[in-house]
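Q: Convert this sequence to structure tokens.
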Amino acid sequence: MDITALILVIIGAINWGSIGIFNFDIVGQIFGGQASAISRVVFTIVGLAGLWAITLLFRDKTTPYVNK
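A:
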């Protein structure tokens, strides 16, 4: 789950970077505009992944990472 969340956060960061630098929304372009239902679902999933990634900051860092 952690790796999936991080991948989605990276996708979101790249999308926001392209919006900021080039004024181009990659996700919106791929899925039919920012207001399309599928784009909104993708944005929501990326947002939830970002919330999940916050938990990574508060995890015990003394134990090695183990895939579960």
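Helices lie at 2-22, 26-30, 37-54.
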